[in-house]
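Build the 3D complex.
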Amino acid sequence: MSLIIRNIIRFSLFILFQVYVLNKVPTLHQFVKPYIYFLFVLWLPFKINRFWLLIVSFLFGLIFDFFTATPGWHAAACVLIAYVRPFLLNILLPQESTEITYAEPSFKSMGLTPYAVYLLLLTFIHHAYMVFIQWIQFGNFWFFLGKVTATTAISLLLIIITELLFVRKAKYKTNLA
Amino acid sequence: MRKVFLFIKQFFNLFVFVILQVVCLVLLVNYNRTYEGLYTSYATEVKGLVDEQYNNVDYYFKLKRANNELTQQNTALMQFYFSEHAGADTAFETFADSLMRDSAGKYNTIKVLPAKVVGNSIFEENNFIMLHRGGRQGVTRDMAVIGPTGIVGRVVDTSANFCRVMSVLNRNFKVSAMLKKNNYSGIIEWDGKDPETLLLHNIAKTAKPYKGDTVVTSFYSGNFPPNVMVGTVKAVVKYEASSFYTVKVTPSTNFFTLQHAFIIDSENYKELKALEQSAPEHP
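Done.
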């Protein structure tokens, strides 16, 4: 399956799963809200142009926003993590090998610790920005702190479950072909 | 000039990022201020179609509850209907009045459109409901929506066959409501925390609200007809400093199983709104 088709399928599946499964789950508390849709942005290929990375994330967020009737809210957070992503990858990717040999970020392609840091930081940034926008509208500091911590924790749990359930075949790209 | 282009080229991605962020925030701010749907009605239609597919499955699991609620409402309406027409003077009338006019010669200004709920969110801070009725069936923005057991929300956006309703469980929703026992009115709002608790603000201390009292829409509710059930008093929050109570209200509508709703088209409200818009704000 080519990279483009795979990402188009992911695009729709992440939105549908988030809207029709996770958003229907009864919440334990106001702070605990399961989010996983933004994993689409984290899984985009390494070699994507930075301009297109921003545009794709923007469209992804905006279409998701339509389903939850909050235009611009998720899109803003998605654009932010799409902008930060290349800088973070620059730092975290092993510097010795000059060429990137895998298609997209995963445990296998980046190594366990760098990938975990990558997930943690971007998840945190995403939620912090989203809840920050909410905080401007209402709520207080404890709302901000509590919600960011709780949603980040539950998102990381969901991401780990997803990684275990759907093992992505990370293709090793050789230079022979 | 060349330097300007070089500068733009160097920070091209930063510019794109900033522009996209500004677009997002403008969308967000405008939406929250005017509560209007910014997307085209085409997008509402698409969302409605997807929601309808989901609801086709979901509906079966909630059918029993929905049936019970509708039967209860039917019983109440039957009771109302017969008590209205059992007077000595109108006992001979056996036909239904198709002119929307009652026996005293007054016209009915309220039209009710039945609608199927196809999409419903409960667990967000701002919840919306999708109904399978739209502009083609005569739905316009700001119409009130009630369910079999109480108020549901207000129409904010319509497409050809679907409309988006701002649920009572939305931080931007406000409606005037009163205690049924003594007609003291206040404002119903929701704080985004618990879908089982609404807040009724500005109830005067002389109203003496007690747990279990019925709360209904008031005579100032605008698009809502008066005396529609809102809920029952759950608890009364007392502040020593204020001369008003904040009352916690359990909504009578079960938003978890809501499947049928009625859109209220009020002739008076249209006139009232037109008057409000034509009158100068600072006379």
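The two ends of chain A are 18 Å apart (CA to CA).
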